[in-house]
Amino acid sequence: MILCAGEALIDMLPRQSTLGEDAYAPYAGGAVFNTAIALGRLGADVGFFSGFSADFFGELLKSKLAESHVDTGLAVTAERPCTVAFVKLVDGHATYAFYDENTAGRMLTEDDLPALPDNVEAVFCGGISLPVEPCGAAYETLFVTASERCVTMIDPNIRPGFIRDEARYRARIEHMLAHADIVKLSDEDLLWLMGEGEIDGHIATLLDKGVKIVCLTMGAEGVKGVTKRGTTFVPSEKVDVVDTVGAGDTFNGGFLAGLQRMGKLTKTAVADLDDNSLRAALTLGAQAAAVTVSRAGANPPWSHELEAK
User: Fold this and answer.
1) Residues with Cβ < 8 Å from 266, sequence gap 6 or more?
2) Theoretical Cys-Cys bridge with 146: which of 16, 49, 90, 150, CB 3.0 to 4.6 Å?
């Protein structure tokens, strides 16, 4: 099983009513939630760990995960509100108004962490659950502990507007990167984390610190995977972009699903991944992300949709 650990929330997405009025509609979302959905729809064995509200929003989140074959048996349910994010789209790019105080997801603590079952082969973390407390500390502990035997992947997906204590957040990400096998980020993420300089130089620094695979997403250009043995580039598929919500999250799911399909989701295999296997995983991630950006909202594809292309 691939265990995705992080935020699950309600995205209130802009719509128009039947009377032509501006309105908002509730959709299940969250970066790590989206990655879990993508994995489940691509046929991966996947579980999700987070804090769920006991209210109807929490039930909505659980039901959407179940519909995409994501196991929530390790998750925690609490009598707290659900995190809600109102989304505004500007030229296809999302900005957020975020309501997260005292929520079931935010108030997750290290005491809530499950003992990882033996069938958990990989742990994925990232998103806006990492800058905030106490859940950020809980996910950090889970990730570092899991790294002893599981493949670990992190997508920082940095949103500066969510970071209240930059020093603590930077220390957390540094700690998690030191225990990560796979890191996915954009050039903006990389420059925020490591400062001005050459992108390739920053990637080399991550590899020197022990990361085995760095996936650098480059929007419409494509994605490259970098290991100690070299660089593999996969171009993006050309599609009509509706919006970019969930594109990177879907890539994460496709990449991990590709590794799992090939039997490469082990510490040993990831540490010495051959170029063909890396290209295949990058390609599945890019293909899945292309479908997501071609339709509204974070709506990752099912396996049969990719097979039909």
Assistant:
1) 121, 151
2) 150
Quickly tell me which residue has 């659950």 as its tokens.
Answer: 129
- What's the rounded Cα separation, in Å, for the pair 153 and 180? 6
Return d(Cα 307, Cα 171) in angstroms, integer.
42
Instruction: Quote the pLDDT of residue 92.
Output: 64
Answer yes or no: are the C-beta atoms of 77 and 48 closer than 8 Å: no
- Asked if residue 74 has pLDDT above 70, the reply is yes
What's at 282, amino acid-wise? L
DSSP strand pairing (122-126 vs 2-5): parallel
pLDDT cut 70: percent of the chain above it? 99
Mean pLDDT of 207-222: 95
User: What's the burial of 115, exposed, middle or buried (CB within 10 Å: 0-12/13-18/19+)?
Assistant: exposed
Cα 102 from chain centroid (whole Å): 23
pLDDT, tens digit, for every residue of 101-127? 999 999 999 999 999 999 999 999 999
| Residues 6 or more apart in contact with residue 18 via CB below 8 angstroms | none
- In whole angstroms, what is the distance from residue 226 CA to residue 224 CA? 6
Tell me the helix, strand and coil percentages in the chain, rounded to 5. Answer: 40, 25, 35
- Tell me the residue type at 80: R
Please tell me which residue, 156 or 90, carries the higher pLDDT value: 156
pLDDT at 93 over 80: no
The dihedral over CA atoms of 211, 212, 217, 223, expressed in degrees to the nearest 10, equals: 160
Q: What are phi and psi of 128, to 5 degrees?
A: -80, 0
